[in-house]
Amino acid sequence: MGSAVITARAAATFEPVGRSVAAARAFVRDTLQGWGFPDIIDDAVVLTSELVTNAVVHAGTAADVLCVRADGGVRIEVSDRYPERELPVQNPGSRPGGLDREGGRGLLLCTALAAHWGVEYTSTHKKVWFRLDVDDRPAGTRSAGPALPAEALPPADSRVRVAVVQIDRSGAVSAWNDDAEHLFGYPADQVKGKPLADFAAWPHTPGTATGIAEALCLSRWEGSYGIRGADGRVIPVYASHLRVRDTEGAPSTVCLLVRDDERAVLQSPQRPSADANAGERGSADPFEVFIGSPAPDDLDGLLQRTVERARDMLDGDAAYLLLATDDETELEVRASTGLPSARQRFARVPVEAGAGRYGSARLPSVHDDLSAIPGAVPLLDDTGMRSVVTVPLKVEGRLTGSLGVAAEAPHRYGNEEALRLQFAADRIALAVESARLGELERLRRGSLSFLVEASDLLAGTLDRDQTLALMAQMTVPTLATWCAVYTIADQSSEPELSYVLHEDEDLIDGLKALLAKVDPPEPVPTPGARVWTAPAEAARAKDFRATLRDLGLTEPDRHHATASGISLATASAVGGETVVLPLVARNRVIGMLTLGKPTDDHFRQEILELAEDLSRRAALALDNSRLYSERTAISQSLQRSLLPPGMPDIPGVEVEVIYRAAGEGNEVGGDFYDVFPIRDGAYGFAIGDVCGTGPEAAAVTGLARHALRLLAREGFGGPAVLERLNAAILDEGARSRFLTLLYGELWPQQDGSALLKVVCAGHPLPLRLRQDGSVEPAADPQPLLGVMDDLELYEQTVTLDPGDVLLCVTDGVTERREGSRMLGDDGLTEVLTTCTGLTAGAVAARVLRAVERFAAEPASDDMAILAMRVPEHPQQ
Question: Where is this region: Disordered (predicted)?
C-alpha cells in the first residue's frame, strides 16, 4: 500500500474445509464493521469468499486472511500454500471467462470491484490481494440507522441506566456520569485521569489485533465487553463508542454503556417533545433508549427480546413477531409475549388477509377497537386484546416479517405509536433477517445430515416391520410429537394402521385407541403435506368429553384413568396440527405418514419440507422391503418343495440328516438328500451334489430327487435308477449339470442288522464305523452322472451289524479349507473314529462341529451329512 500509514490489522487462518468459506466471510464482515467501513463490506465479502474458496476448496490448502486498514482504504490479502498453482491464462483476443466458469472467477471479480489488486508468489505461498478505497467522512459520523424526527423516537424507560464515559486521546477517563457511578460503584473522582483499560475486561478475539485502544480510535464501534466494578466483579456491558472532538478540538471518545442484557442502541441528544407532558418526561430523561438485540446468531433470543422491548416501549399488554415465508405469501408466528405463545408458535396467516391497507401486512396499521371488527387480527381472537398496532419488517424493500403490539384497553394506539414502532422495526429488521438466514443455513445443513443418516438406516434393512419402526423413530421427536404409519397392501385395500409412536411411551396405547376410532386419511397421491383434522376433532368431541366427565375424571387424573381407552392426556397430545404425507413408490400410494403436534401447536414450513423429503425415501424403502418379503416368501416356498417332506421311521435303524445351503436366503442348493420308503420293508436313501450352488443347482436337485423316488417305486434296481436319471439330466441340454450321487436301498433284518445295496456314482465314498472303532469305505467309486450317455453301473452289498454306523457326506464337508489346509477324507475318518457308541444324531452333530471349527470363515459350499446307525439293542 505504498507509504500509506497502517492503523489497524486483523488476521485469521482457515482450515481447508467447506465451512471455512463462511467463517472467512464473517471474519471480514465483522472486522470492517468494527472499523466503521459498512460501505465496502459487501464488495469485500464477495471478493474474500471467492478467493478463500479457491484456496480451501480448489487448491485444498489452508487460507490466511489479513485485513489491513490504512489511510483512504482497506487492503485484504488471501494466501494459500499452493505456490505452483498458476493464474488462469486467457487465449489471445478472447473475452475474460464468464461468471459461470469453474475457475478464475475471483480474479475477474477483483478486476471489476477492487480499486487495485495483484498476485504475489513466494517459495511456500501464493498471495492474492485487493484494495478497496473509502470516502473521507468527519470524525464521529455514525452510519447506523435512518435519520428521523425527534418526535418519532421512543422515550427512555426510567429503569434503564446509561453510563456516559468520555475518554481523551491518551485513553484516560475524562468524564464519568451518575449512571456510571450507579452501575459500577466508582465515584467520578476515583476514575477520572485513569486509563479505561484499568477497568475494562476486553475480550481478545483470536486472530485479530484489535484491542480496546484500537477500538477507542475508531470513528464508531459497538459490541460487548466487561467493566470491573468497585466490588471486583466484572459487569457485562453493551457499548457504543462514538469518536468526537472535545471543547479544545482534541479527539476523544464517548462511550455509552448499558448492561449487556439490555443490548441497546442509544440515541444521545435530548429532544423536545410534541406536547407539554412529553416535554416534562423528555427533560427528565437525558437519553432515549432504542430496542436492542442479542447476538445475531441467536434468532429465537433476538425475536423474543424484540417483542418484549416492543411491548415495554408502547406500554402494551402483549406483542408478537411474525416472519415471512420465502414466497412472501404467509407469515409464521415466531415469538410472542403476553399471549399463549406455545399455542400460537408457528401458526401461519396470509400476508394479504383482506382488502384495504388494514388487510395487508406490508403496511403499518392501527386498530382502535378489535371488538368492532371481529376477526381483523386472527392471532388475537379470544385473547381479550382490544387495540393493536402492527408494522412491517422490510429489508431492501422486501417484506421479511411483521411486528405487533396489543393492549386490552381500546383506543390505546395512534399514528404516533405506529411511527415509533415502525422506527423500531426498521432498526431491527436487518439483524432479524441476518439471524433468520443463519438459522435457515444451519437448518438446511442439519437437514442434509438428517436425510443422509436416514437414508443409511433405511437402506440397511429389508425387513418390513423394522422399516416401519425406523420411519417412526426418525420422525419422533425430531420432526413431530407423535407419528402414525398407515400401509396399503394393494389398490383395492383400505389403509391399515401399522405403526404408532409417541415421544411419551405412556401415551402410545391411548393414541392407538384414538386413531382406531377415526377413519384413516384418504390415500391421495398429491405430493406435499396436507392437514388432517380428524384426530383433533375426535379428541375434542363432546361425547368423548362427556364420557370422561361421567366417569368423574378431572385434570389430575388425565394420565391414569381412561374412557374407552383414550385418556385426557392423549386427547391433549393429538390436539395440535396433524399432517399427512403420502408414501408413493413406483407410481403407487403404498401408505401414509402421519405427523402430529400437541394441543394447538403447529409445524413450521421447514420441518414439513424435511418431512416430505424423508417420506419419499421412506416410501421407497418400505416398498423395497415389501418386494423383498414377497420374493423371499416365494423363494422359500419353492425351495421347501425341493426338500423331503420328512424322515420316515425305519424299524431298527437310526437316521439323522444335517443340511446347510450356502448363500444368504437359500434353503436348498446343489447338495441334496432323501430317505423314503420304496415298499414294505425296503427303504431308499440318497445323497448327492449338483455342480454349483444357488437356484440353478437347486433346479437339478429337484429333478434328481423326484426322479429317484419315482424310478425306485417302479421297481428298478439301483444301477437302473441312476442310468435313467443320467439320461434325464442329459436331456436338459444347456441347463444340465453333472451330478455326483450316492444311492442305496436298505432292508432291516430280523437279527438286528441291516442289509444295504449302494451305488456310488462319482460321490465321496460312504464310511463305515464298526464297534471296534475302525473306519473303512463302504463302496467303490464309479462314474458320475450328467457327463456320458452310456454308463455301466453296479451295486455293492453292505451289512451293518448292531452298533455300526454308515456316514455319507457331500464334498462340502471333505473340501472344507483353511488356507492351504483341507479337511479331506483322512480328516473326516479321524473325526469318525471318535464317534464309537454315539447315536446317529450325535455322530452327525460331531461331524458338523468338526467342519465348522476347521476354519474361521463361513462355509462357501453346500453341505449335507447323512448318518445311519444300527442300534446295539433295538427296541422291541
Answer: 266-285
